[in-house]
Amino acid sequence: MEVLYTNTRDASETVRASQAILNGLAKDSGLYVPTVIPKLDIPVDELAGMTYQETAYAVMSRFLTDFTEEELRTCIARAYDSKFDTPKIAPLVCADGAYYLELFHGATIAFKDMALSILPHLLITSARKNHVENDIVILTATSGDTGKAALAGFAGVDGTKIIVFYPKNGVSPIQEKQMVTQRGDNTLVVGIHGNFDQAQTGVKQMFSDDGLKAELGAAGYQFSSANSINIGRLVPQIVYYVYAYAQMIAGGEITSGESINVVVPTGNFGNILAAFYAKNMGLPIDRLICASNENKVLYDFFSTGMYDRNREFILTSSPSMDILISSNLERLIYRIAGEDAEKNAYLMNRLAETGKYMITTDMRRQLGTFYGGFADESETAAEIRRLYLDTGYVVDTHTAVASAVYQKYRSETGDTRKTVIASTASPFKFTRSVMNAIDEKYDAMSDFELVDELSGLAKVKVPQAIEEIRNAAVIHDTECDVDGMQDVVKKFLGI
Ligand SMILES: *Cc1c(COP(=O)(O)O)cnc(C)c1O
What we know:
Blueprint: E1 5-7, E2 10-15, H1 17-23, E3 32-34, H2 44-48, H3 52-63, H4 69-79, E4 92-95, E5 98-102, H5 112-116, H6 119-129, E6 135-141, H7 145-154, E7 160-167, H8 173-180, E8 187-193, H9 196-207, H10 210-218, E9 221-224, H11 231-250, E10 260-265, H12 270-281, E11 285-292, H13 297-304, E12 306-308, H14 329-336, H15 341-354, E13 356-358, H16 361-365, E14 370-374, H17 377-391, H18 397-413, E15 419-423, H19 431-438, H20 447-458, H21 464-471, E16 478-481, H22 485-493
Parallel strand pairs: 5-15, 6-7, 6-9, 7-8, 8-16, 10-11, 10-15, 11-14
Antiparallel strand pairs: 1-2, 1-3, 4-5, 12-13
The structure holds pyridoxal-5'-phosphate.
Pyridoxal-5'-phosphate is lined by residues 110-112, 265-271, 320-321, 398, 424-425.
């Protein structure tokens, strides 16, 4: 059965999977959603015997129905290889009775790698399937983390080039070092003399510049983006929930058909939406626990039915969750609005115009499977410390938000169902916050002293991604003014 993708804001637009991946965003800023969620018609015992790559094929082939078996298997093999530091790709670690699903074993030691290591292959395959012969040029402005994950994903992928702009004085020294040491002839990293907004505006201008588009086309190139709302990033994220469940079966932790809960530290709502899709495929998930930090727009939404972004933006120790507009929530809103594009478009326009919207009682009733919780900065730090002291297991700040919310959920509801906590970053990525949470004495140490200290304390080897920053040579030293961004792009592409 072919799965098609329709626009959440315009019911008249329906495309195939490869077109949805190639387009990224649908018309009128809508998002692509599958018109049906395919069933996971594979016996659990069979799933329990599968590798990560086999699970990926089982899940993704049901969504990306216009890819041939060979195309999809090739994409999967190229994505989930030795870039990951464990053959399990996403191992499940039991600590204090919960199951931490470690999504941080890829190139940049955070969960974005799970999708960004396969997106380039899906994108280039989609281009060829749709007779796009141009090379794809990814343009990205980054305030830090996404830039590196995209660079690592696209580096060395034939038929693609990637150019990342970052504010020269606006990212952390470690983030800068991660980017400027990126290898790969098809990569370019540029520090701009300006802030993140200016970098982003410059990129948007290039995307909408018809003259530039024509010049690019004549030279055999076209722009694309690796945005987090691309269906090519969402579908690969469903895989690890199925894999986690299968691993629990294989390990005798649960019996076939037994339901589990899932807790997800949430920002843009992409990761938890993937868990929701896994549930809709038939995976026995009971509650979906949405964990927020102090930017608790989603907690308020689940408790009141009102989404309201009009509030102070708070900088926390879990920066990847510092978000006031969770773009992927639109896909859930569309769903609970009865897959009514008009109703959804109305609410999204309210959001754009007033910064808020209220859903109906009927829509709220369909959210029963979700539980919203949040943890503030001190609760997050306390959870890192508690877990370490009780079990020796060290989690990062984002995972700690989820873990703290799970503790609250359990004491509030008494629900003792087996629970998977999505662990979205290595503690080595947020070493200072993690070590300070464990003991204030670490405050005086340098960043790399802390890395070694954490390694000893957690009994975990320092990840390759961190060793690289310590030793690797700087490869990229291009800088430019805000109005010189286009020239840099043209020079790199030789046009
Ligand atoms: C991006 C990110 C999140 C949030 O995931 P969403 O899919 O945006 O909800 C959580 N933790 C880390 C470490 C991340 O990088």
